Amino acid sequence: MSVYLLLFLEFFKMGALTFGGGYAMIPFIEETVLSHGWLTTRELVDFIAVSESTPGAFAVNMSTYVGSEVGGLFGSVCATVGLVLPPFILILIIAKCYEKFKQSLIVRGVMLGLKSTVVGLIGATVIKVGYDIFFPFGFDIEVIPYELSSGNFWFIIVVFAVMLFLLLYKKLNPILVIVLSAGAGIAAGYTGLISL
Amino acid sequence: MKPKLKLCLQLLLTFMKIGVVTFGGGYAMIPIIENETSKKKKWIEPDDLIDVIALSESTPGPISICAATFIGYKLAGLAGAFCATVGVVLPSFVIIYLISLFLRQFEEIRIVSYAFFGIRAGVLALLIKAVISMFKKSPHNIIAYCIMAGSLIAVAFFSTNVIIVLLSAAVIGLTAALIAKKRGREL
Q: Model's pTM, two decimal places?
């Protein structure tokens, strides 16, 4: 299959099957881009930061970015159109019979399932991304002592804890979280606290 | 200019503006969409806007796309929906495409690689916040909790395909709703 058609179809599938917007799409995106080898988990995490600091919906940004990485300008058009098309078509259909749609028992039942599963799916992504960030060399008995003794591990723990606190209790803007974490990384890098 | 053509052009420009100023996407877009389409332009009643948001939540895809398509369609039919949707996507498309051209090289610069090392810890915190806010917005009953736990375990520890998880969750939710109705109860 041509790479353009593959991009279109994979992102069409994502556009059709992810509910809830924003980060609800991450688990699906993660599975797709990893299984095709389009991005690594780390590149995906880096791109989340880029997407938070630029305008637009996360899923749209992701489709443009992956499309461009895999197939250049035309690739990014295919991926983005693929993602946007399913909600576009569905909304056009529903807009005509909105009242019926709203009261439908089937819709409410399906939504109960989907809204709940999204929480679990993002939870699973947190576990996978956390594992990749905290234990980049794997969770092996031989490397664990090495990982725990490195400055990198403790740096990540401290930055993560501080940012989580600021987000949850100080309602800090996500862009500021990214700027502060970047500043911490630069400071730790040049003082030799972390080594890459 | 024909009135409909003019309206489509306005939709395109207004949604481009919305596409430029909304960082982070998702629910952050709602107040801005409200301000532009309801308060400034009087295109849509505030009550209808609440419906748009509910509709976006029960259809797939990003909220901004759903809102643009719906409002565009209500105002000027298919052409309106097309213009509004293209408008909301275009700014981020251009910006992200430009970024994609140099992000990899950019990450190899020493100072940037340090910055991204720190940023990954921050992103993990953002993801946890997303889980918490999704949890707050989701249904709170025993079936919902079982689906949450089941899908987390299935994907995190057994690498189950996400489509299978989504479809199973939809079937379980639907079954639960039908059983509840049969017994004459609200879900």
A: 0.81
